[in-house]
Amino acid sequence: MAKHYEGILIGKGLKFAVVVSRFNELITTKLLEGARDAFLRHGVNDEDIGIVWTPGCLEIPLMAQILAQSNKYNAVVCLGAVIRGGTPHFEYVASEVNRGIGKVALDTGLPVIQGIITADTLEQAIQRAGAKEGNRGFTAAVNAIEMANLLRALQ
Ligand code: INI
User: Fold this and answer.
1) Cα torsion for 25, 144, 112, 75, to the nearest 10°?
2) Tell me: the pLDDT tens digits for 25-71?
3) Scanning 50, 80, 119, 135, which has the fewest C-beta atoms within 10 Å of its C-beta?
4) Which protein residue has the closest C-alpha to ligand 1 atom 21?
């Protein structure tokens, strides 16, 4: 009989760090609200959530790495918004932050969850930050709980 491993969605006793960017704060504060809501509704204690603000998305990977290496958290959630609308380095910022977050996860062996919205317009970003298309921060936090528990199940 094959053995299946899954991460349960119970957050009690787990500790999480959230790295959130101030750039496009209108969107990222909504992502943070969504993430906190998900953590609390899945049983995480408010005191077990550490929140770190960065100026922009590009600074997120370094902070995520420091938090992942601190041995204080079961997972790190990264929240930010990269909006195309007229910015020439949209592609650069979007790909660098993605690459950096993936690298931190692989280098540290800790779940580092990507909750970065990349959108063509502000309107599209709003849809993904608590309007029609849900809240990317909420789903990132749920994924963090699942991954933290999956890691425990495998260890
Ligand atoms: N930072 C973001 O978080 N989102 C963006 O859309 C963005 N754009 O488009 O420029 C952005 N730039 C700032 C960047 O993350 C750094 O904070 C900045 O370059 C200083 O290092």
Assistant:
1) 110
2) 999 999 999 999 999 999 999 999 999 999 999 999 999 999 999 99
3) 50
4) 58
In contact, 61 and 55? CB cutoff 8 Å: no
77 DSSP β-pair partners:
18, 113
Which residues are within 8 A (CB) of 41 and not within 5 positions of it... i.e. 6 or more apart? none
- Coil, strand or helix at 113: strand
* C-beta of 90 in contact with ligand 1 (< 6 A): yes
The tens digit of pLDDT for each residue in 95-151 reads: 999 999 999 999 999 999 999 999 999 999 999 999 988 999 999 999 999 999 999
Q: Could you say which DSSP state residue 23 is in?
A: T
pTM of this structure = 0.96
Atom index in ligand 1 nearest the CA of residue 90 equals 9
Closest CA to 58 of 101, 16, 28: 101
Two structure tokens written together for 59: 């600074």
Q: Cα–Cα distance between 105 and 90 in angstroms, integer?
A: 23
Q: Is 80 in the pocket of ligand 1 (CB under 6 A)?
A: yes
Q: What sign results for the dihedral spanned by CA atoms 29, 32, 36, 42?
A: positive
The alpha carbon of 145 and the centre of ligand 1 are apart by a number of angstroms equal to: 28
